[in-house]
Fold this protein.
Amino acid sequence: MDDRDMGTDLEKVLLSQEQIETRLTEMAAEIDADYAGREVLLVGVLRGAVMVMADLSRKLHSPVQMDWMAVSSYGSGTKSSGVVRIIKDLDTDLTGRDVLIVEDIIDSGLTLSWLLGNLRSRGPASVEIATLLRKPEASKVAVDVRYVGFEIPPEFVVGYGLDYAEKYRHLPFVGTLAPHVYGG
Ligand SMILES: O=P(O)(O)OC[C@H]1O[C@H](OP(=O)(O)OP(=O)(O)O)[C@H](O)[C@@H]1O
Ligand code: HPA
Ligand SMILES: [Mg+2]
C-alpha cells in the first residue's frame, strides 16, 4: 500500500497518487478553459483542502489568488454534525471577484451548501466549486458543483488531506478506513 506503517487501520487504496495527479491535471485544464485568462480567487477550505489546493493551483495557467477559510462540521467523528462554524474567515473582499471554492470532499453537502450561501452574499461576480471527491449517495443537500474529480462510494475515506480524528492527512493517496477503526 505504502511504506508507512498504517497497521491494519486502512482497508484499501481507493485512488492512487497517480490517479489523483492525472485527474487534477484534467480539472486544471477545464478551469483554465472556462476562466479564459480571468483572474480566479481560489478559496481553500481548511484543513482538508490543503493538498488539493496546493496541487491543483500549481497546474493552473490562469492568473490566481488564494485565500483560505476554516469551517468545521465534523469534529473528531465520521458523521457531519450539520452545524457549520467559521473558525477563520477570508481576508479578501469578494466584491466582483470570480471565486472558485476548492474542497477535498463533498459528503452530505452540508458544509458546501452553507458556504455557498455565505460567499454568495458577499457580492462576488461568480462562485463555483471544485472538489476532488464527491459521495453522491450520501448527499443530503443538492449542491451544484462545477468540477468534480471522482465520484466515490459512501465509505469513510482518508488521506490526501482527509483525516480521521486528525490522522492520515499526509498520505499521498486516498484510502478507505477499516470499519473496526471507527466502530462501523
Ligand atoms: O459534505 P459534508 O458532509 O459537509 O463534508 C465535507 C466537509 O467535511 C470535511 O471537513 P471537516 O469539517 O471535517 O474539517 P477538516 O477539513 O478540517 O477536516 C471535509 O474536508 C469537507 O470540508
Ligand atoms: O469520508 C470522509 N473522510 C474524511 N473526512 C470526511 N468529511 C466528510 N466525509 C469524509
Ligand atoms: Mg474540510
About this structure: The chain is about 25% helix and 30% strand.
